[in-house]
Amino acid sequence: MSIKNLIICIAVIAGIVTLTPFLKFQYQDLMIFLVINVLVVVSYRLVTLTGEWSLIHIVMMGVGAYASAMLSKFAGFPFWVSMPLAGLTAAGISAILCFPLFRMTQFYFLIGSFAAGEAIRLCWIYFIDPFGGSSGINNIPVPVLGDVDFYEPMPYLYMVLVVVTISLVILHRIEKSRVGLTLLAVHWKAPLAESVGVDTWKYRSLALIVGSFFVGIAGALKVHYLGVVTPHQFGIGIMVFVLIWVIVGGYATFVGPIIGVVVLTIFDQGLRASGVVDPAVQPAIYGAVLITSILFMPEGLEGLGKRFRSMAKNSNA
Amino acid sequence: MALLEVKNVTKQFGGLTALNDVSFSVEKGEIRGLIGPNGAGKSTMFKNIGGFYKPTKGEIIYDGVNIAGTHPCKVSGMGLVRTFQETTLFDELSVFENALVGCHMTAKTNLFSAILGLDRQQQVEAKEKTMDVLEFMGLADRKDQLASELPLGSQRALAMAVSLNADPKVLLMDEPFAGMNPEETNHMMDLTLKLQDRGITIVLVEHDMKAVMGLCGYLTVLCFGSLLAEGTPEEIRNNDKVIQAYLGGGS
Q1: Does B121 have pLDDT greater than 70?
Q2: Domain B1-79+168-251 falls in which CATH fold?
Q3: Is A200 on the interface with B (CB under 8 A)?
Q4: Domain ranges of chain A
Q5: How far apart are CA A49 and CA A180, in angstroms?
Q6: Residue range A209-232, pLDDT digits in tens
Q7: If interface means Cβ-Cβ distance under 8 Å, which residues of chain B face chain A?
Q8: pLDDT in tens, A56-81
Q9: How far apart are CA A20 and CA A31, in angstroms?
Q10: What is the ipTM metric for this complex?
Q11: What does the alpha-carbon distance between residue B45 and residue B230 come to, in Å, rounded to a whole number?
Q12: N or C terminus of chain A with fewer C-beta within 10 Å?
């Protein structure tokens, strides 16, 4: 990472840390979910690096959320143990799912992943013991560290920032390493990659497993703040939001999805606060944003920035 | 003992017999041409050797092991690397990155060492090795260009660089001269001979007779899925059966 990017990252984190305490309570809440959603979209991008778009990502977040909730509530594990275990549970379940899912590619994989995700979600609804059915599990313990408890939003935000930052650094390192290069190679020309000895099945699975690990951690972070986990938090509707964030932001680079989730969250809140439109119409507006961005900015917001920069360079020269 | 031995290979697709009881063997260090009219089964033979197809019957012995039906990525890991008929590259990656993917098996890395940065030494070696290969293929000064921006001749050379970086013992080249002008063909022939000097055994499927006759020490001719003839270019040129197969003509 260049010095310039490092400074930008530090500035963003410092900005969040210093400015959030002055926000209204509801926006502090929102900031926590925004930071968690950044981890969701960035981990999703790792999965898409191999060219396979899955619809199971949010369900994997749920797997992590349920795992952490159950481990801490029923087995009495502290959050600091149940959170990494949540990631491992999501990774483990996705590892099993690799066997049926990666016999398929492209469209069939997309639909297969959706079906597998719904099967998991229906298990949560159907098996009331231990998953609690439709109403899920409530009274999930609040994380505690020594004398500090993380019930209030600000301490929780700091904790989330630390976990998400570490996760993003790891995901960034994976992408920039030769492993990341191989994932791209699998995406662009799988037969050529195979001809030099790349096991494409293994690398597709690797991307899904690592992506699931981090989104499982994001799930744990989310439900320990809410105190409740239900199957409806991880439905296909939420997955569609993730897709929109990633596509509108631009999935070609690491920062694209982050830009997407931040800009659209601000847009969403602005719309809600202005009171111009009925909340019921909001999904339609999201749909319009998606269509517009696919038509006019195929590389997403990130690509738009790149285009402006090159235009500015040309006009200066 | 021969390095690569094809023994009585038959490949059927439903009722169609694409290869019928074909046997031949390739010695270490030679450039072997595999020729024949269209539909003779050359590409099918290649795909059987490379692991993309499993022969219906017969064995493919490489370095003393039967590799028939082994997955392509395993076959290439054993040093039997193929190139593709059309120009096949990672278009969206740079020349250097393309070649770097090639050393997947020879400079291994894994997730945890990549995250923790434990593989720095290996990465430096992989990059040096890649630069050596690019220099060998005459592509070093274009290393930061996108693969899709190169002219055709250089793209073919890059495709060879990718394969070469996988340290092949046997290189299966599928029509490397197709669509090239005479100048590019000559350049490619030079490169092929340089590969032979590095001790790489080459099996070549090609229609360009000038290139085949100039490069190969020994030819195997297929026709309608069967072995028609074998011999030096001189023998093949004067073989009545081969002339008939290529020029048609009644019997």
Answers
A1: yes
A2: Rossmann fold (3.40.50)
A3: yes
A4: 26-234, 236-317
A5: 8
A6: 999 999 999 999 999 999 999 999
A7: 50, 71-74, 76-77, 81-84, 88-93, 97, 100-105, 109-111, 114-115, 117, 123, 126, 162-163, 165-166
A8: 999 999 999 999 999 999 998 999 99
A9: 8
A10: 0.81
A11: 16
A12: C
Query: Both tokens of residue A292?
Result: 């517009």
Token pair for B122: 């290996």
Q: Which of chain B's residues have a Cβ under 8 Å away from the Cβ of A251? A: none
Other Cβ atoms closer than 10 A to B36? 25
Q: Are A247 and A261 in contact (CB under 8 A)?
A: no
pLDDT interval class at A87 (50, 70, 90): very high
pLDDT at B251: 45
pLDDT at A316: 63
State which amino acid sits at residue A15: G
Half-sphere exposure (Cβ direction) of A188: Cα atoms closer than 13 Å: 19
Secondary structure class of B181 (helix, strand, coil): coil
Query: What is the 3 state secondary structure string of A17-80?
Result: HHHHHHCCHHHHHHHHHHHHHHHHHHHHHHHHCCCCCCCCHHHHHHHHHHHHHHHHHCCCCCHH
Distance, in Å, from the CA atom of A303 to the CA atom of B110, rounded to the nearest integer, reads 31
- Rounded to two decimals, the pTM is 0.87
Give start-end residues of each CATH 3.40.50.300 domain in chain B. Answer: 1-79+168-251
Residue A229, token pair as written in the block: 């986990």
Tokens of A45: 């991008």
Interface check A299 vs B, CB under 8 A: no
Q: What angle do CA A168, A171, A176 make, to 5 degrees?
A: 120
